[in-house]
Amino acid sequence: MTLLIRKPGILTTVQDLGRTGYRLLGINPNGVMDRAAARLINILLGNDENDAVLEMHFPAAEMEFDTECSFAIGGAEFSAMLNDEPVRNWSTLNAFPSDILRFGKPELGTRAYLAVAGGFVVDEWLGSRSTNLVAAVGGFEGRKLKAGDRLELRSPRPVKPHTIAPSLIPKYSRFPTVRVIASGEFDLLTSIRERSFLNDGFTVTKDSNRMGFRLSGPPLHLLHSKEMVSAAVTFGTIQLIPDGQLIVLMADHQTVGGYPRIANVISADLPLLAQLGPGDGVSFHLVSVADAEQASAIFENDLCWLRTGIRLLG
To answer: Structure pTM?
Structure first.
């Protein structure tokens, strides 16, 4: 009972919600870029929300099922087709032996996710099945998938039809405004540069990857230069680098950094950032820690209702 990778796509890896508790040892968390998408489709299938999924970039993978099972796709819209018939994101879908899943063209977003009912049987390292490409551990042999790979399905099963309500799906955009909270060095920005950070737009450059997005925009400067001691950073930390430009740290971020940390994207808006690609834009809106906590609580409450509804409906 496997899923055959007929074509691997440009970068397809196994990820879950990341490994935790090891940053003090310098081990980065990895995990999916769009946590909301991965959690939603796993819950939709009745899986544990931390079950491993496939993270795909476009051109995406082409896959063949060798057993009956249910699956779901979330995140970016890549014009998914099962046996050349269009299928929808955010819904349970059924596959049968010899069915082929492929993706036609990117419509919105840069990372699509695939989960199967019952989950994948893949390598675990330090409590996570996320692929760490640098250390070559976790996921499928610690590497991106290639043609001919077969992913074992843990307990494939059909599930009843379910669809994610539109209100739960992140509001993806090619130029979102994401909410941020002030970080350690925010108050060191000049007043003019603070206004620029919050009022001007920034563009994601081609020098971006799962470790971090480099942004292009109006140069920002601090009131005075400051000798920085390396300090903890996390997913969504916005660093000001020496040329006045910004880097937003993403899922494969390092554990500490020495550049000024001027803000941090709130967790509720990280999925919007995760779906951006080179040439896409982003702007920032400053909120309080209380606002960030409320946004997170609202999403977690929505997920709770979704889990409850899936259980009640079978």
So the answer is: 0.96
SS (H, E, C) the chain: CEEEEEECCCCEEEECCCCCCCHHHCCCCCCCCCHHHHHHHHHHCCCCCCCCEEEECCCCCEEEECCCEEEEEEEEECCEEECCEECCCCECEEECCCCEEEECCCCEEEEEEEEECCCEECECECCECCCECCCCECECCCCCCCCCCEEEECCCCCCCCCECCHHHCCCCCCCCEEEEEECCCHHHECHHHHHHHHHCCEEECCCCCCCEEEEECCCCCECCCCCCCCEECCCCEEEECCCCCEEEECCCCCCEECCCEEEEECHHHHHHHHCCCCCCEEEEEECCHHHHHHHHHHHHHHHHHHHHHHHHHC
314 pLDDT higher than 80: no
Selected from 3.30.70.1060, 1.10.3110.10, 2.40.100.10, 3.40.1180.10, the CATH number assigned to the domain covering 177-293 reads: 2.40.100.10
What backbone torsions phi and psi does residue 110 show, to the nearest 5 degrees?
-125, -5
The mean-pLDDT minimum among 99-103, 159-163, 225-229, 252-256 falls in 225-229
> Which tens digits make up the pLDDT trace of 259-299?
999 999 999 999 999 999 999 999 999 999 999 999 999 99
CA–CA dist 64, 3 (Å, integer): 6
Average pLDDT over residues 45-53: 96
Residue ranges per structural domain of the chain:
2-168, 177-293
pLDDT at 310: 81
Q: Give the phi and the psi of residue 52 in degrees, each rounded to 5.
A: -65, 145
